[in-house]
Amino acid sequence: MKKVLGCLRRACEEFDMIKSGDKIAVGVSGGKDSILLLYALTLYRRYMKIDYELFGVTVDLGFDGFDTAPIRDFLQSIGVAYHVEKTDIAQVVFDIRKEPNPCSLCAKMRKGAFYEAAARLGCNKAAFAHNQEDLLETLLMSMIYEGKLGVFSPVTYMSRADITLIRPFIYLPEKEIVGQVRALKLPVVKNPCPVDGITKRKDARNLLEHLLTYNPKAKESMLAAIRNTGNYHLWDKLPSGR
Fold first, then answer.
1. How far apart are CA 45 and CA 8, in angstroms?
2. 229-235 CB contacts, 8 Å cutoff, 24+ apart
3. pLDDT tens string 181-208
4. Torsions phi, psi of 184, nearest 5?
């Protein structure tokens, strides 16, 4: 866990993510990233001696066969309160709306349900487990599909929900997550969504892996480009006039 906690601490300190007295709702999807983030935050609280509360929150989309019992049992074992927000998002997206590209609407509704649950729990902050690859894939998707340069922010105040979203894993490579989840035998619940893995993000991940065959340090370079906001060369910096 040394590398995991090191990356988490770097992000938290660089972007001032967590303070004493915070109540943090951690989005727990059932996947490896979110369950490790919650566990890492319990260790970070202990080692850094920062007094904050944690709540695990899972949005149940309404798919058959989604069993949250392993998550509940694990969170109980580490002393973290757990809340499952029941929804009918799956029915709305797939049966009623019959969305040909369901991911966007599903994500919007899922986040809305999550923030509502966090507010009821009295949380002032929310944490998502987006990792380093998620960040870089977002950059590629923004360029290729939207014609712009953009990534999600490490810290974002969500005014409509009156909650601050933090992403403590932005510096953590996914391979570290995979290794630690296996080593610690953390519970992972399979995503029952029928389009899981068939997304533009998956395509961006394949592209990122392809770029690494040309330059093994491509991820480091891309991350440096994102952070180096004062030194970029785009058309808005062209000299005006002659």
1. 11
2. 234/149
3. 999 999 998 877 766 655 778 888 889 9
4. -90, -10
Radius of gyration of the chain (CA): 19
Tokens 């991911």, residue located: 103
Buried b (16+ CB within 10 A) or exposed e, 11-42: bbeeeebbeeebbbbbbbbbbbbbbbbbbbbe
Distance between terminal CA atoms of the chain? 56
The pair of structure tokens assigned to 175 is 């391979």
- Rounded distance between C-alpha atoms, residue 23 and residue 4, angstroms: 22
How far apart CA 43 and CA 71 sit, in angstroms, is 18
Supply the pTM of this predicted model.
Answer: 0.88
Provide the pLDDT for residue 52.
96
- C-beta separation of 34 from 28 below 8 A: yes
| Per-residue confidence (pLDDT) for residue 202, from 0 to 100 | 82
Q: Which residues are within 8 A (CB) of 56 and not within 5 positions of it... i.e. 6 or more apart?
A: 26, 28, 38, 71, 75, 80, 81, 82, 83
Which are the contacts of 77, defined by CB distance < 8 A and separation ≥ 6? none
**DSSP strands (E only) in the chain:** 23-27, 53-60, 81-86, 125-127, 155-158, 163-166
Q: How confident is the model at residue 238 (pLDDT cuts 50, 70, 90)?
A: low
